[in-house]
Structures are given as C-alpha cells and as structure tokens.
Amino acid sequence: MRFGDYSALCRDTPSYTWCNLFYRQLFHDDRSLLTGLSADPNSAPVGVNPVCGIAKAGTTIAGPHQGTGKSLGNIANVVVCAVSILVMLGLIAGAHRRKAAVGRIELRNLLVLYFLTLPFQLVTNGSLLEQGSTSLVALTAIHAGLVAAFFWALLMNAIVATQKVEDGTPAALVPYFIITVLFFAGTTYVAFDVGLGITHTLGPSSDPSELRSIPLFVLTSIWPAVAAILYFGIMTYIVLAVLNEVRPMWFYILSAGLFVLSQLAWFLLGKVICEGSTSKIDGSFVATILETAAVGTLYLAWRSITEDSWDDDPYPMYPS
Fold first, then answer.
1. CATH number (domain holding residue 187)
2. Per the structure, how many domains does the chain have?
3. Does the UniProt entry include the keyword Transmembrane (predicted)?
4. Which is it for the CA torsion 218, 219, 222, 226, positive or negative?
5. pTM as predicted
6. pLDDT in tens, 140-161
7. How far is CA 284 from the centre of its chain?
8. pLDDT tens for residues 81-115?
C-alpha cells in the first residue's frame, strides 16, 4: 500500500466514506474493474469491491455475507448519527450559556462544525444513495471539507487556550474563520476533483484501476492526525505546566483514548462486525459513538478549566 493509496482501504474497511469518490471514477472509466458487491451501482455498498459491505437501502440482498431480504442500509450508523446530533445540540447550548468561559465562542464553533458533519455522515455512510451518483459525490466532498475544517478549529481552540491572543476578539476570530473557510473550500475542491475527475493534478490517478490521491489522503487522514496530536500536546502543557492541575488532564487523556479507539473501530472492527452480522451493520456505528464521546469529553475538559459566569454584583451582600 503506497502513500495516498485507497485500494486496500476501500476493499477491507466497510463504509469508508471517501471511497464514494473513487467508485464514480471506475464506474465511468472502466466498469469491468467493478466486481462482486460493487458490480451493480443500484445496490452497491460504500466501498470499491469490498470484501463485505452493507447494500443500498431498499435493495434485495443475497449472498454469503448478506443473508436474504431487503437491505435497511447502514441503519445502526444512521440511528447513532441522529442521536449524536441531539447530543451535540445540548453541548452547543451548554457552551453558549457559559458566558465567562475562556474560548467559549471558539469551542462553540468547534461543536457546531462537528454537529454539521453528522448529517453528512448519516447520508454518505448510510448506504442511502446510489453509488456513483453526482449527489453522493457532492455530499461526500462537502463532508470531507467539514472534517478538515473541524480539525483546524480543534487546533485553534488549543491556540486560544494559551491566551496569547484574547479569545472572542477579532484577533482570534478573524484568522479562525478565514483558515476554517480555506480548509473547507480547499478540501471540498480536492474531493470534487477526485470524484468528478476534473484534473489529474489534484484528482485521481490517470490509471482508473489505481485508487490513489495524495492530496485527499493528506487532508482527510494526515492533517486530522497532526492537528489532534498538536492539540493534545498544547493542552497538556497548559493544564499541567500553566494551570498546575491534574484532574482536567484525565478528561483530555480520556478524549484522546476515545478518538484512537474510534479509528480502530473503523479499520479493525468494521469487517469483523460486517461479516458477523451478515452485512447488516459494521464498525461505523461504534466509531461514531466513540467520536461523539470524544468530542463530549473535550467539552467536559473545557468546563473543568474555565469559569461558569462572572460575578455580576461588585458589592456582595453580607448578613446584617
């Protein structure tokens, strides 16, 4: 597996989102390369020639890993995404109410970005739309842009927490929003390029059988990992060295652990769960639960190191 190669990921990782971009490439350039579960776009699961996959909702399924009957799509992940949306609305409201907390606006925007990824994940991983369709490519491209923007927002929250720049001011918010838009627009364009084959510079390889895009791999895999590591490093310094606290650090460690476990669920549990459930569910719903839990734990960590509200009365009442 070469750097930027998606062939193994799309074959062995059920419901791997970015494979939606490569299916269309093969479907239009050389359909003979689509075999097995991917041969029929009307029922094809997320992935390219996957070993095991969840058929498109509403289609008749039959096979060694599929059982028989009508597919419900990736129903487990659809339900988990819907519940996660409600959880994130509660966290966003909670962040909004903490008027005096450092980085309140930046943290709220981070939660909003994660909230926005969930409806897209519900659709792009849910086996709800036909593989190779322009609508699925477009939604997947936007989803990729939101993921890249989210990890910039995560890193910016750590930078704001250093208080080198005052939170909530133009000095903090202007670069925050400008770079967020740049990450979103740049990654979305690259994903569209891969999915629609506009160019061969940022888009897919000129060989349709080669599922490879280094820019897409960097923006959706390498960049999130780098941003998460930098965030954890900066927050560790702030909590232990600046605030001289230990208890909040456990929240950050737990959040990091949940994030790592979510990625392991994608890449290690996916095929095991898919085959064990006869292609009814896969590891994506476990990954979504763990990712949402990781974001929720970040919120708890932020609460533990910030003030709730200002004292509105400068002259406190004393008993007479």
1. 1.20.1070.10
2. 1
3. yes
4. positive
5. 0.90
6. 999 999 999 999 999 999 999 8
7. 11
8. 999 999 999 999 998 888 777 788 899 999 999 99
